[in-house]
Design goal:
globular, 2 domains, 9 helices, alpha/beta, Oxidized Rhodanese, domain 1
Length: 282
């Protein structure tokens, strides 16, 4: 039985009512926060939503040979790894994470970049799911039949350093930074040792936390107001953060608000601040 997802975010009740649908794939997209002291391995006691599959952003779905963290895979690499998880062209995917809404939008954006549309983020993630006493299980390794997932790469959804540098003085483009205001203004240190503080010239601060309310996304109306505040002229938007994770929260909020002309700077601040001779504002 087919299952169509019509919005970028789904409710706990929607997911609970569709558990067991043969087309549904639930992806646990959890990663530790960048400020966490240890990248601990997945615990055997880790709980997950019933029938979820662990989507390993760090080790499987990022280019581990790249110079910077969380670098997007090639389209061919992404396609192959999705097939290995049993994902098909007619799958309906719901992403969630253990922090509420943190890393799951990154996975949602990855699939959008790869041209897959039947996907959404679970509002409130695992904390709200567990709070509502919906079905959970211990994390378990699974064996999958190879899927037939196919990539239809959407190049306009991603930006690289040279792209961002070329528009920092373009008054038709707005760069919005999802990091905290302290990191944006270099009044608090970057979590990565030795990384310079500050922000890309002519960018604006929009901490991803300002789109959330108690671990859930704010309402569509509230999100629209937030984006209108920073972008009343409806410029093209480029989202950035530390390594592209929370920039994806801004992308999700923009999509829900009806904004289509946005992209994500994949290298984000880590690449910008690590690259010689690029301008930095504080």
């Amino acid at each position: 039985m087919s299952l169509k997802i019509t919005k970028p975010i789904v409710s706990l009740d929607w997911l609970q009512s569709n558990l067991g649908n043969e087309k549904l794939i639930i992806l646990d997209c959890t990663i530790p926060k960048v400020t966490a002291k240890l990248n601990t391995p997945l615990s055997e006691d880790k709980k997950q939503i019933k029938d979820a599959i662990f989507f390993d952003i760090k080790k499987t779905f990022s280019d581990i040979n790249a110079a910077f963290p969380n670098t997007i895979l090639s389209p061919q690499g992404f396609e192959k790894r999705c097939q290995n998880l049993g994902i098909n062209i007619d799958s309906a995917i719901v992403c969630y994470d253990d922090l509420g809404i943190y890393s799951s939008p990154r996975v949602w954006w990855m699939f959008k970049l790869m041209g897959f549309k039947n996907i959404a983020v679970l509002d409130g993630g695992f904390p709200k799911w567990e709070e509502n006493k919906y079905p959970v299980e211990k994390h378990q390794k699974k064996v999958f039949l190879k899927g037939n997932f196919e990539v239809n790469y959407q190049l306009e959804k991603i930006k690289y350093t040279e792209d961002v540098f070329s528009v920092i003085e373009n008054d038709r483009v707005l760069i919005a930074d999802a990091r905290s205001k302290g990191r944006f203004n270099a009044t608090e240190p970057e979590p990565r040792n030795g990384l310079k503080g500050g922000h890309i010239p002519n960018s604006v601060s929009l901490p991803f936390s300002e789109l959330l309310d108690k671990g859930m996304l704010k309402t569509e109306d509230d999100l629209r107001v937030k984006f209108n505040e920073i972008n009343p002229e409806k410029k093209e938007l480029i989202f950035t953060c530390g390594t592209g994770i929370t920039a994806s929260v801004l992308a999700l909020g923009a999509e829900i608000s009806g904004i289509k002309n946005y992209s994500i700077y994949d290298g984000s601040w880590t690449e910008w601040a690590s690259t010689e001779n690029l301008p930095i504002e504080k």
